[in-house]
Structures are given as C-alpha cells and as structure tokens.
Design goal:
There is one protein chain. The chain is mostly beta strands. It is 10% helix and 51% strand. The chain has an eight-stranded antiparallel beta barrel. A hairpin with a 5-residue loop joins strand 10 and strand 11. The longest helix has 11 residues.
Length: 193
C-alpha cells in the first residue's frame, strides 16, 4: 500500500478553500410588510465577501460579507433616498452592513445553519442564516470554478435601532418590524497560494 497517496488524499480532503463573492451574480434581497397589506421587496446592489469552506466538513464554514448600505434599491427613488437617511439606515454615518459568522452546523444534505454577528447602523446582533441548495463545484465558460447557495433569515429592524414608523388610520403601523432576508450567492474559487 502506498501511504504517500493515502496521506495526499487525506490532506486534500481537509483543505479549506477560500471563495470570493461574485457581486454580479449575487442577490441580497429583503421584504417588509407595508400598510399591513402587502410585502415590499428590495435589494442591495453592492456586496462583497469571502467564504472559507471545506466540502467534507461544512461545519468549518466561515463567512465574511459586507453590503454597501447606500446601494439599497426598491424601484422607487424617493423611498430609496428615505431609506438611506437617518430615519432608517443612515448610510452616510454607517456605509456598510457587515456579517461575520461564528459557527455553522449541518442541518441536512446541502444545508447549513450559519450563526454570526450582523451589524447594521453600528448595532450588532446574533443572526442565524438558513443556508440551502449548496451546489457542487462547476467550471464556467471562462474556466473559473464556482459554487452557490441560497439563504434566508428573519430579523427585527427595531433590534438594530431602525424604529421609524407611522400609525395608520385603521390602526397598526405603516411598516412592519419583521424583515425577511433572502440571499442567492455565487462564489468564485480563489487560486491556491
């Protein structure tokens, strides 16, 4: 038996691969209840980040992501400007939303619960992302190796100091407190160093 080959295969399985978020093929979306009637959706158009991932041990996953607060887009320029203001994200004083993972656990085939610290408006809270549809590696038409995943989480905007609201005539508030985050992430494998 050739122990060199066995050792080499064993060490290859334990390699932690670093991936870079592809901002062009990644979507960071959200939805919030409006006027107690419907959900208004939007997205952040600028995102960057790194993911460290080991296929044989996804629990070792580490994520660092940064979202440009001013890149918020809801298809309504006046609303977007208000969301960038001090009433909401205060984008000038807090230009980035940051997520840094602290733990991950497998929840099923191709699925993880990734817990980490989410910072919005300078306030940090623990959030767990339900990550699903973790794909295998695929080579694209340019030869780059890619993988992807989708994730969701529910947060309360008031937990991050975003409390602006208006009371509506029928009772209740114009803007819901619960925010559903929805992410579709495309990752590009970094060249080994």
């Amino acid at each position: 038996m050739n122990t060199t080959n066995v050792d080499q295969k064993s060490s290859e399985q334990k390699v932690v691969t670093t991936w870079t978020v592809d901002p062009v093929h990644t979507t960071v979306g959200f939805s919030v209840r409006h006027m107690m009637v419907t959900n208004v959706r939007g997205e952040f158009q600028k995102v960057s980040g790194k993911v460290r991932y080991r296929a044989d041990s996804p629990e070792a996953t580490e994520i660092e992501a940064e979202i440009a607060t001013a890149s918020i887009h809801t298809r309504e320029p006046q609303r977007d400007a208000h969301l960038r203001s001090g009433d909401f994200f205060d984008a000038e004083a807090h230009p980035a939303i940051v997520f840094r993972s602290t733990a991950a656990r497998r929840t099923g085939a191709g699925a993880l619960a990734v817990t980490g610290n989410l910072t919005i408006r300078g306030v940090t809270r623990e959030v767990t992302l339900a990550v699903v549809d973790i794909t295998g590696e695929q080579r694209d038409h340019n030869g780059a190796v890619r993988m992807g995943a989708s994730a969701t989480a529910k947060i309360k905007r008031s937990d991050f100091g975003i409390t602006y609201n208006k009371v509506i005539e029928a009772g209740g508030f114009a803007i819901g407190d619960d925010v559903l985050l929805q992410l579709d992430v495309s990752l590009v494998k970094n060249a080994p160093r």
